[in-house]
Amino acid sequence: MTYLVHILLNNVIPLTIMIVVGIVLYRAFKLDIKTLSKLNFYLFSPALVFKMLYESQLSLNLLGQTLLFFFVYFAAMYLLVELVIRIRGYRGGMVPAMRNSVIFYNSANYAIPLNQLVFVGDAFTLSIQIIIMMMQSLLPNTYGIYAVNASKKNDMKATMRTILTLPVIYIIPIAFFMKGFDIPVPGPIYAPINYVSDAFVATALVTLGVQLGSMKWQLNFSDVMLSNLLRLCVGPAVGFAVVLLLGIEGVMAQALVLSCAVPTSLSSVLIAVEYDNEPEFSSQVVFSSTIFSIFTVTLVIYLMKFIS
Residue 47: which of 198, 259, 254 has the closest Cα? Predict the structure, then answer.
């Protein structure tokens, strides 16, 4: 019960308030959602990724183990959602929309505070979550965008040019290089990076609110609930199976399983909005999975005690 209340008060309610602010702002001023989307892709998200990687304490061994888990987990979830897509007979934009809603999850503004709540500020588990966050920032900006444009049969050369303009794919190696060689960031430059990264969560949630406010709210209940089931219930179960398969134990195993339990990423909405690919479905999935995660994440935290 303590975890449920804490998740509600410190994750779900604050996120919901910001989403409501976005809805109100759209109704009042008809904000341009494309502009908000571009701000997230080209400014706020890269700043957050750089700051978290540059300030993290990562070892090569930890990086290797976490990346191995991530790629095995990602492949398993990808194959699982592909099977569901074929069984359901999805076509067109719903194929990448459903896929993105399951394989991209909220590893930053939801998972990092959750990690620190469960593991009481442990630097080791925080480093694990930051590595997961890095991959969950890179993949939507590369594969996620490619998949959406491929489903629309858009010009792939133009799509690749778009991907190559996204800052986050350059920010990650730059952050590792500067951290590895202890290259300091000058104060006048680091201050704006802090300002911008701190604004990521608010801007992304307002963007989601603007999208929800502009929708006709024709709820596709079965597809939204199916996505929620795969992300919130099947996701952590697969994570548990992967740590067993790889022989990962102890606190690291617990942190990795917890990282799989969080709701659908805001990135799936940003991609859907930016490329006009089932934005209503994506927005409804993010909002509903965040609400339902109160109960599913609490259950995962309880079950984590059985991971030795």
Answer: 198
DSSP state string for the chain: -HHHHHHIIIIIHHHHHHHHHHHHHHHHH---HHHHHHHIIIIIHHHHHHHHHHH----HHHHHHHHHHHHHHHHHHHHHHHHHHHHHT--TTHHHHHHHHHH-B-TTTTHHHHHHHHTTT-HHHHHHHHHHHHHHHHTIIIIIHHHHHHHTT--HHHHHHHHHT-THHHHHHHHHHHHHTTPPPPHHHHHHHHHHHHTHHHHHHHHHHHHHHHS-----HHHHHHHHHIIIIIHHHHHHHHHHHHT--HHHHHHHHHHTSS-B-HHHHHHHHHTTSSHHHHHHHHHHHHHHHHHHHHHHHHHGGG--
Whole-number Å distance between alpha carbons of 108 and 113: 8
Report pLDDT digits (tens) over 6-50: 777 877 788 888 889 999 999 999 998 889 988 988 999 899 999
Measured CA to CA, the distance from residue 283 to residue 270 in angstroms comes to 9
Look at residue 245 and give its three-state secondary structure: helix
Q: Evaluate the CA torsion angle 261, 258, 12, 134 in order and state its sign.
A: negative
Q: What angle do CA 123, 241, 103 make, to 5 degrees?
A: 75
pTM of the model: 0.89
pLDDT in tens, 267-277: 898 898 888 88
237 closest CA partner among 304, 140, 285: 304
